[in-house]
Amino acid sequence: MKHRLLILSMLLISTGMNASHAQVIDSLKGQAAFIFAYYPKESLQQEFEQGYKQHLDWHRRNNDQLPWYAWYVQTGSRLGLFIDGTFGISFRAFDNRVNRSEDAADFAKTTAPYAALAFRKVYKLRKDLSTTFLLENWNPTTGMEAFDITVFPGAEKNFEHVFFEFVNAVEDTPNNPGITLYQLISGDEHSGYLLLVPRNNFSYYDDDKAIINIKSLVETYVPDKAPALLEDLSRSIKRKTSETWQYRQDLSYFPEKKP
């Protein structure tokens, strides 16, 4: 432990980051995910993006310590939907975000005139049921398949058991398949989950082990328990849809210091 503390102290000195700043950044970390979605108004997507970039400049000027990702929905019934969100923070950090009233006023001025609000949702990372944490580590891929899942009330344990078995089966596997599962806290029908499967392009699906849906995840990586787990899924899932999120780096924001 003493050696680890010494190394940490040396790193803080060598990077010029003081200990108090490190503690502030660390205090922001958590398992919350806040997701916002907008449809750019017809024929105004360029104006929407210009306004949103201006709003991101406000975050830079105010030294916002929360990361903000941006995607466009590329496939599915919500084609063209703009999604932004902050991940890997504590719920308290969202409550205490920088200059909240000014933030809202600037968004209303720069971006809102060109957009129609679609939804706002709050999720909690299920770290115990996930294998990768790219958004929490500020390391997004160029695309993701997003599965929006609703399970029957009372069937949460059956549904989550499938992911527990998957994580347990692949945790010691080199280059294990990356999935991140979030549980809905607020903003839609309960009980809801968001499953994100990162990928960089559509050639991902050329791989025989590509995760196309939860069924393929079970059959490929937990074959010995597949019949029972698929039965759990059939009894628990009420509704599920999928869509592709295409990452927009130019419409995303990150604080200067990486977590």
Automatic annotation (TrEMBL):
<keyword id="KW-0732">Signal</keyword>
<feature type="signal peptide">
    <location>
        <begin position="1"/>
        <end position="22"/>
    </location>
</feature>
<protein>
    <submittedName>
        <fullName>Uncharacterized protein</fullName>
    </submittedName>
</protein>
